[in-house]
Specification:
Elements (H helix, E strand, L loop, with lengths): L1 H7 L50 E7 L26 H7 L1 E7 L5 H10 L3 H4 L13 H7 L3 E6 L16 E4 L8 H15 L4 E7 L26 H9 L6 H35 L5 H4 E6 L21 H4 E7 L7 E8 L3 H7 L8 E5 L3 E5 L3 E5 L22 E5 L15 H17 L13 H9 L25
Length: about 500
């Protein structure tokens, strides 16, 4: 039925509606170049070697924070001090001062498993095996490559999407799933495993801590409530956020700012978890007589995706969106020769990060691509964003709530220098840029190594209920057709 509706409206050229005005005011860092060619920022500045070739054997620590939007952090331009005190060791703000902040890192999707699948394999979701949160990453991941070289790897993840059957468990000696209710215990659980490995010091180790906050429901620690939110009886749960999307007129500006405040307080909560884990790991190295954490490891702090926060069509969450608030993710690298206190504006894909850090591969500035399955697409360089809905699908991605459309324009161009939140379509003002980016998107898509359909993982009732509670559809599939393939620039007729 859906495909019939889509086909009948494919030529409608629906234009997506904008939501709130810019509520962050973050600045775009890309160079202000002309429109005649691709706008790529300078190549990334990094150590002369990757982790595996470093002069000293170093461990690798990955700290990931679910649904953490880059521009809600102070070192990405946020007005709220969500990163903790820069004087507190291991806080997010302290980490940003101690390491290299990569300012333009783009997730391949607004979904956890496709994004982490790309992070851990270096491949696009359409290549590594899953474009949904109920699939399985089939491609070999970097953790497995390290394990085959003798590394001892440990992980604690606090999102049911990352359950052991998701395909990312391979390569980890221990891989624990911590529920939302147990998130405050996640650091201690991981430290219980890392302590033995660090004390022995005989084999190198990969350690991955994944925290669920600030994913909805927005329920920050009691000590942070009221720091940024208002004294309003508006809960930050899934039901409230879906009601806002379906009936935006029922929520005034104060209610929306209150919800954003709760989200920011959740970031403070996640910051506490990060401090607990990294300070504990630092003590373990010191107690083993090996020096501190940064003497022994490279630390990568990142997110899988962000949150819309009603930038477009009063949608607050993330699964339906490919816009900047969702796909731009924060990323900090420190230790192992990475420059201290440096900011780099080069535009990178999340899939570029581990090949760069671990193997010393130098990503060349270019385009970054995001997609929702094989149906909705986004291409970015250092300045421009192209949004493409080839079939003209008027319903948008199949993610809850399914009865409220999230409309994408068939072709739209945004200039992030002038329009950071991608609100104003300038495709017809810059047709040469639009055609160039359509051609780049089509070339990327045609070059993907897509090998059949991604398998659907059989979930237990508990796992299915957890995913549904998080607002993820567990039975949908991509269902793409030839109508959905990206256009060439020549095909676009403004």
């Amino acid at each position: 039925m859906r495909q019939a509706v889509v086909a009948s409206m494919a030529l409608a050229g629906l234009i997506a509606c904008s939501g709130d005005s810019n509520h962050n005011g973050s600045a775009q860092t890309g160079a202000a170049l002309g429109d005649s060619g691709p706008v790529f920022s300078a190549a990334v500045t990094m150590p002369a070697y990757g982790l595996l070739d470093a002069p000293k054997d170093l461990d690798l620590v990955i700290v990931s924070i679910d649904t953490l939007r880059a521009d809600r952090l102070p070192f990405y331009g946020a007005k709220h001090a969500t990163g903790g005190s820069a004087d507190t060791p291991w806080s997010l703000s302290w980490l940003a001062q101690q390491g290299t902040v990569l300012e333009q890192v783009w997730a391949p999707a607004g979904l956890t498993l496709p994004a982490f699948g790309s992070f851990w394999t270096g491949l696009a979701p359409l290549e590594h095996g899953t474009t949904t949160n109920h699939g399985k990453v089939r491609a070999k991941n970097f953790a497995l490559q390290l394990a085959e070289q003798g590394w001892v790897n440990h992980a604690v993840v606090s999102n049911g999407v990352l359950n052991p059957s998701c395909g990312l468990r391979r390569g980890f000696q221990s891989y624990q799933l911590s529920t939302n209710e147990q998130e405050d215990q996640a650091s201690a659980k991981l430290l219980a495993y890392t302590g033995k490995t660090v004390k022995r010091g005989q084999r190198r180790s990969l350690m991955w801590a994944h925290y669920m906050a600030p994913h909805q429901p927005y329920t920050p620690k009691a000590e942070f409530v009221g720091t940024f939110s208002k004294a309003l009886d508006v809960a930050g749960d899934r039901e409230t956020l879906e009601r806002l999307f379906a009936d935006p007129q029922a929520f005034d500006a104060a209610a929306r700012e209150h919800l954003r405040g709760l989200y920011d307080e959740e970031i403070l909560t996640a910051n506490d978890y990060v401090v607990e884990f990294l300070s504990g790991l630092d003590r373990q190295y010191q107690d083993a007589g090996r020096g501190g954490l940064l003497d022994n490891a490279i630390v990568v702090v990142m997110s899988d995706h962000g949150e819309e926060l009603a930038d477009h069509q009063s949608y607050f969450m993330h699964a339906k969106s490919l816009y900047r608030g969702v796909t731009q993710v924060p990323l900090i690298v420190l230790g192992g020769g990475w420059p201290q206190g440096q900011r780099q504006a080069v535009s990178l894909a999340l899939a570029d990060i581990l090949p760069m850090v671990v193997f010393g591969e130098r990503p060349q500035p270019g385009y970054s691509f995001s997609s929702w399955g094989s149906r909705f697409f986004v291409a970015r360089d250092a300045r421009w964003t192209l949004v493409h809905n080839p079939s003209g699908d008027p319903l948008g991605p199949e993610a809850p709530p399914l009865d409220v459309p999230f409309r994408y324009p068939q072709v739209a161009l945004y200039d992030r220098q002038q329009d950071p939140l991608e609100q104003h379509d300038v495709a017809t003002v810059h047709p040469e840029v639009t055609r160039r980016m359509l051609d780049a998107m089509k070339a990327w898509y045609d070059d993907l190594a897509i090998d059949g359909e991604a398998p659907v993982v059989e979930l237990s009732e508990d796992q299915r209920e957890q995913l549904e509670a998080l607002g993820y559809a567990t039975g949908s599939s991509d269902g793409a057709t030839d109508l959905d393939r990206p256009w060439s620039g020549q095909r676009w007729k403004p």
